């Protein structure tokens, strides 16, 4: 029987989607059969043997489409190997990465049944010119952490590809 892996993602401005695309490609290059889908568009996990979920952090929380995915598919996800990756930090400051990890742990703590095979944080991408409401409004508030923040893209594509490559071997045994 053919086994399939799902890469599901949530994304507001596309940077997590691009990472999900890169991870999909690496998994495929490593011999896995992979579908890439927006998390909201996934109706059933019936045909999948493993899942990779990707999402950005927004205002200290995992994107709602990822949280919704975990809630909606919780019975199926309990029985599958699942890896999660998250985009967030916009600089290399240690404090920002620690905060992202703590925010992620807090949100995943709401799903105590969820035991991912790996939980990875990658740096994110930020472009103040592309922000839509209400983020554009948030960026104008002097007290906001994104006020006057310059554009940045600290996604580390080598790290992303390495992670996906290792994931392929970790998900493989579950697929055989
Ligand atoms: C309004 C706004 C709030 C954000 N809040 C956080 C945050 O609380 N923690 C964090 O680590 N990153 C935060 N980020 C950074 C995003 O997670 C990062 O830009 C990510 O790459 C966006 O993914 P997307 O392009 O897929 O939507 C925020 C970005 C924006 C625009």
The count of DSSP E runs of length 2 or more, i.e. the number of strands, is: 8
The residue-averaged pLDDT reads: 95
Structural class by helix and strand composition: alpha/beta
Biggest sheet overview: 6 strands, mixed
CATH-derived architecture: 3-Layer(aba) Sandwich
CATH fold-level label:
Rossmann fold
Rg measurement, Å: 16 Å
Molecules bound to protein: flavin mononucleotide
> CATH class, please?
Alpha Beta
Organism: Methanosarcina mazei (Methanosarcina frisia)
Pfam families: Flavodoxin_5
InterPro entries: Flavodoxin/NO_synth, Flavodoxin_dom, Flavoprotein-like_sf, Protoporphyrinogen_IX_DH
Domain Flavodoxin-like: 5-168
Please characterize this protein's 3D structure.
The chain has helices at 15-29, 64-72, 74-77, 94-108, 135-140, 157-175, and strands spanning 5-9, 34-38, 50-58, 61-62, 82-87, 118-122, 125-126, 152-153. With 176 residues, the protein is α/β, with parallel strands linked by helices. The protein has one domain: Rossmann fold (3-Layer(aba) Sandwich). Strands 1, 2, 3, 4, 5 and 6 form a 6-stranded mixed sheet that branches. A two-stranded antiparallel ribbon has the order 7-8. The termini are close together. It binds flavin mononucleotide.
């Amino acid at each position: 029987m053919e086994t399939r892996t799902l890469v599901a993602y949530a994304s507001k401005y596309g940077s997590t989607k691009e990472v999900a695309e890169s991870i999909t490609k690496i998994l495929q290059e490593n011999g896995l059969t992979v579908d890439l889908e927006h998390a909201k568009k996934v109706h059933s996990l019936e045909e999948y043997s493993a899942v990779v979920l990707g999402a950005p952090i927004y205002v200290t929380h995992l994107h709602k489409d990822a949280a919704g995915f975990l809630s909606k598919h919780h019975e199926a996800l309990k029985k599958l190997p699942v890896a999660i990756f998250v985009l967030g930090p916009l600089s290399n400051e240690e404090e920002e990465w620690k905060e992202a990890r703590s925010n992620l742990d807090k949100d995943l703590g709401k799903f105590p049944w969820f035991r991912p095979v790996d939980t990875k944080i990658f740096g994110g991408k930020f472009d103040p010119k592309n922000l839509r409401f209400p983020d554009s409004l948030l960026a104008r508030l002097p007290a906001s952490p994104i006020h006057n923040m310059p554009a940045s893209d600290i996604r580390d594509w080598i790290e992303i590809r390495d992670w996906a490559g290792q994931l392929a071997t970790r998900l493989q045994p579950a697929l055989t």
